[in-house]
């Protein structure tokens, strides 16, 4: 690139990043791939980048987090540029809207209310404020506004939390455990019937009540499953390493051999 390109003279930070995206999207001189992108085509990348940020935090990979946050910020800049091109909104409107929203939701910081509240009280106030905002948008139902595109476990958790606020909830963890046993039996019965729709329906019911148990235990189900995924990946890698030392691959080994190596890996983690 020409060293005298104006992009090098643009102030650092957001001004330069906004100019960069405008250049990439320029229909005459921009990047053909970037020019072709739409809200719909970029949305999956945004979800992926958000998960990569969460992954870096979970692994405490602080050297990677800066880069991942930059990738996530780029997604916002992308949407802002496409919005500006359509005359819908731009980055400045996005930043102004979120700033105004946060000020309105924190009267104990930016208004007359006392900030001598517990975190629990502030959370209740936050939810009350959000409910008022939903009502102004015509979202009167308890479950209105819970995004359809959320990961299923996360959406289930949010739906249950909303319902619990109006009293639709189990009061005892034992009731949730009993429901898990009931749903497990119904899933087994559906599996025996070989009715695929019934199996899927009952499997969904079981997942839903498991999320409910996680909520009662104050566990984030997405985080718990990510943790188990990481554990499974780690232990299966140990199986592969064990077999490699014997000149084998998982395809060459028996289930008994792999199970033994799994138990060894499990035991090693506990020591």
From TrEMBL:
**Leading EC class:** hydrolase
List, as start-end ranges, the regions of compositional bias called Basic and acidic residues: 114-137
A Pfam family of the record is MazG
Which intervals hold domain NTP pyrophosphohydrolase MazG-like? Answer: 37-110, 177-235
Q: What InterPro entries does the record tag this protein with? A: MazG-like_dom, NTP-PPase_MazG-like_C, NTP-PPase_MazG-like_N, NTP_PyrPHydrolase_MazG
Q: Which reaction does it catalyse?
A: ATP + H2O = AMP + diphosphate + H(+)
Residues covered by region (Disordered)? 108-137, 247-271
GO MF assignments: ATP diphosphatase activity
Which Gene Ontology BP terms does the record give?
Answer: dATP catabolic process; dGTP catabolic process; dTTP catabolic process; dUTP catabolic process; response to stress; TTP catabolic process; UTP catabolic process
Q: What is its EC number?
A: 3.6.1.8
* Family in the record: Belongs to the nucleoside triphosphate pyrophosphohydrolase family.
Q: Which NCBIfam families match?
A: mazG, PRK09562.1
Name the UniProt record assigns to this protein: Nucleoside triphosphate pyrophosphohydrolase
């Amino acid at each position: 690139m020409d060293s005298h390109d104006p992009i090098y003279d643009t102030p650092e930070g957001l001004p330069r990043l906004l100019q960069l995206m405008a250049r990439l999207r320029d229909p005459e001189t921009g990047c053909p791939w970037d020019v072709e992108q739409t809200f719909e085509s970029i949305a999956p990348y945004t979800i992926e980048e958000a998960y990569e940020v969460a992954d870096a935090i979970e692994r405490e990979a602080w050297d990677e987090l800066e880069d991942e946050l930059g990738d996530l910020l780029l997604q916002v800049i992308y949407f802002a540029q496409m919005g500006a091109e359509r005359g819908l909104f731009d980055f400045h409107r996005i930043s102004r809207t979120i700033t105004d929203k946060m000020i309105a939701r924190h009267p104990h910081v930016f208004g007359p209310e006392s900030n001598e509240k517990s975190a629990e009280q502030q959370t209740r106030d936050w939810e009350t404020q959000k409910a008022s905002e939903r009502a102004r948008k015509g979202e009167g139902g308890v479950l209105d506004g819970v995004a359809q595109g959320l990961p299923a476990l996360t959406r289930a958790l949010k739906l249950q939390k909303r319902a619990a606020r109006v009293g639709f909830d189990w009061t005892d963890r034992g009731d949730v455990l009993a429901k898990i046993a009931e749903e497990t039996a119904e899933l087994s019965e559906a599996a025996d019937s070989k009715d695929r729709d019934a199996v899927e329906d009952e499997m969904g019911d079981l997942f839903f009540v498991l999320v409910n148990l996680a909520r009662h235990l104050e566990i984030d189900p997405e985080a718990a499953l990510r943790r188990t995924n990481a554990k499974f990946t780690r232990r299966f890698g140990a199986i592969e390493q064990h077999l490699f030392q014997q000149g084998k691959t998982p395809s060459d080994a028996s289930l008994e051999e792999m199970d033994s190596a799994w138990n060894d890996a499990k035991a090693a983690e506990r020591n």
